[in-house]
Amino acid sequence: MALENPSAPSRPASRVPASTPSSGVTHVNSRHTSRYTVVGNHLAQHRGLTLVAIGLALHIQSLPTGAGIGIKCLTARFPESEARIASALRELEAAGYLKRTRERLPSGRVVTRTVSYNQPGAAPQRPVSRPVGRPASRPASRPADHAPRPKREPRPGPTRERPPLPAPRRPDPVGARTAHRILAELRHEDPRLLLSETDVARLTPAVATWLEREAPPDAVRRTLAADLPGDLRKPAALLAHRLTASLPPPLPAAAPTPARPDPLQTCDGCERAFRAPRPGLCRGCRPTHTETPPP
Predict the structure, then answer these.
(1) How far apart are CA 222 and CA 18, in angstroms?
(2) Could you tell me which of 210, 202, 221, 198 has the C-alpha nearest to residue 172?
(3) Could you read off the pLDDT of 71-123 as tens digits, one per residue?
(4) So what's the pLDDT on residue 237?
(5) Separation of alpha carbons 189 and 16, rounded Å
(6) Structural domains of the chain in order of their starting residue, each with its CATH number
(7) In 10 A of CB 30, how many CB atoms?
(8) Of 44, 89, 150, 295, which has fewest CB within 10 angstroms of its CB?
């Protein structure tokens, strides 16, 4: 009978659970406490989607809001080709996991809006913002006799609208050309006052208003270029403020020149002095005096 060798190493314990099936997969799970994504089996075991589409849907659902999921971005992230990624996106869109719409921005640029659904057809839940990678913290408990304080609604602050730029009362092509030249040549006063063609066209009517109110061009140029701030970043906005806030008042209308009295004349009949534009008879001599017709 063979003797047992007491120095022989013991058999290591198996990491596989005792209730292990004879074939198939065996799960060894651990609890996730951070950086995880919940995915339904309707997606993980979807029979109508390819593995590329299922994996792409899982990747998209794990991304934060605002992350780029364009074809170029996904191709740079994964080894699949653009054709396979585009096909997978179409699969997810047909199955209801993605919705892509094209919108035109006010600037004229066309962008694609993409919405990801983790469970197509279900009512969406209200999103809760929390730091990434941290579990939601529980609110501190309050004493039973202490009522919660009502939240104060922020008071709407007054909205300050920018006043419109001055505009001349009457069109004056000469004044408009002079105003355009003043704005374009401000760069000679300070290089930071280099304006774009659009800004010059927008500010030209305001400068023309100053000229209409008989402000000398040199005075307008000095007023706009004087005492510039050291951190000047938006010269057009500064000039618009100065043209509006420092607009000179219109000059008062000139008083009408009083009419000069007629000069003194000597009456040809009574030789009295009277006022009339031309020599002749005074008012008293006109009814009684008759001229003798020449022979």
Answers:
(1) 92
(2) 210
(3) 888 988 889 998 999 999 999 989 999 888 888 888 878 888 888 888 887 77
(4) 92
(5) 83
(6) 41-116 (1.10.10), 173-245 (no CATH)
(7) 5
(8) 295
